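Hi all, long-time lurker, first post. I run a small reading group and we've been trying to get comfortable going from sequence to structure in the token notation. Rather than ask abstract questions, I figured I'd post a concrete chain and ask someone more experienced to write out its structure so we can walk through it together at our next meeting. Sequence below, copied exactly:
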Amino acid sequence: MDQEQIDMLEDFDVDDVTVAGSPGLWVEGSFRTTDGDSAEWCLAASRTTGRPVHFVDSRSAGLLLLIVDKRTYAIGYGQGHRLLSGDQKDRRFGLEFAMRALDPKQVSKLMRRRPGARGRTEVTRMPSGSSIWAFDVSDAYADLVGGAGGKSESLQLTHTRPDRPVPIDGGIGLRIRLATDPAELVSDIRTIAQVLDRARVTDLEFADRMRPLQDIDTVTRLDKDLELMLGNKADEAGHRLSSVVPMELADAIDDVRAYKVRLNGVSRRESEVTVANLLNRAHILRAGTRLQSFRDGRISAYADDDCDHLLGGTKAIEWLEAITNFDDRHFALVDGHWYEIDADYQERLRQAVNELLKIRSDIVLPDWRVDQSERDYNEAAAFDPDLHLICLDRKGVQDEFHTRWGFEACDLLGPGNELIHVKKATGSSPLSHLFMQACVAIQGLEGSVQARSRFREIVRKHGRGRELPPDFKPAKIIFGILLKAGEEITPRTLFPFSQVALVQAARLLQSARIEVEVRSIHLAET
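-- Answer (accepted) --
Happy to help. Here is the structure in token form:
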């Protein structure tokens, strides 16, 4: 329990309870009381605990600690989540549940932080839900994911309707509708436990790629370096230390008006939390005790200047991000834990490229003659009647946004209306342009009726009798690439930056249900 929050409660009471045979502890109180009707949460708490619960203010708090099958769960009512200290929370509980229960095609929220990016925290929301790949997670192997929300088609709770998916929001905790009837509540908790025992959904496994360091010797070395950093002045440590918002408070930070920083038992009000004011506080602490003081200290956020309305608080160390390196390894302190940046990232990137290279169709792309330009190659490929290709190189598709020249939908149109993009590349820059060009083409054709109509007109004009169906939408992209001396495309031969760009583009295209194929074009024998 968080003793500081408990001490702030009025009408405080604590009692043993039994919920459908499961032993538990009920804690209640109010941070401010007035006369009037009961707060909305009181009826649900009364039904579950079997005891009268009455508080008239929405800032009242109830917390039910319940042991079910030898596991302890905490259920917050009203402001009850504030009564449980951060050290007592399983900080991955809600996220681990989300990774197993969410439908990857109905994700509506993703919260993440990139270690080493000076505290940048992204909370991306798509209220109607979308595929996880629409959140641009192709490069998320190096992200620390703090939460995910959306809907589950597979979860069945006591009040779930079979024809309706269940809303889920999982981070440190889990926001989900549970039953209030005691027996049904315990049944719902057991269902949650069963989900946690399942394997993670494949498309959501990336959320578990960044884990805190477990090597005690490395952590000890990093802690010593951080202790020295805390003794520096702001201008000396500015490139290695950043002030950040803990993920637990990321959703509430826009409502914050003031902070209380408590270090070594001394509290001080601050209008903002910056590296400079945190280091100023650290300088008055004895050398060798600064890091521990930040681990023991606390920073609380308030919705008013007088610090009466608490929004939440965490350990002071969680408001700092630090970066350091040694032995060619890079590390970052995030939410109080050390992580290694980009560990094994290259290997995962190679695996993703290999998966793309396994996709093969029967489409034939001719060899490239040494004396051919890109335009000559496309025209020659379309001239071969056996290949059934249409040259649309430099044929701009105009729409509401691309009004001047238009966008290039493809270089060649395949026999099955595949959009084929062709590039001769001696470096990574032309390929990055190629992959982006394909994404722009799909966004244009998917999002504009006018663009699809113009594209059908272009095919009719240049396609020698080919006609696209009125309901045409692209279904497949093929990247035809001539590398350097015409070698086969592999993770070894493809430029490193091009591998990143390819994987990012492929994920974006796949989120739009577009199949992606990568084909090597070879040099013709002289």
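A couple of things your group might point at:
The chain has 13 helices and 24 strands.
The radius of gyration is 29 Å.
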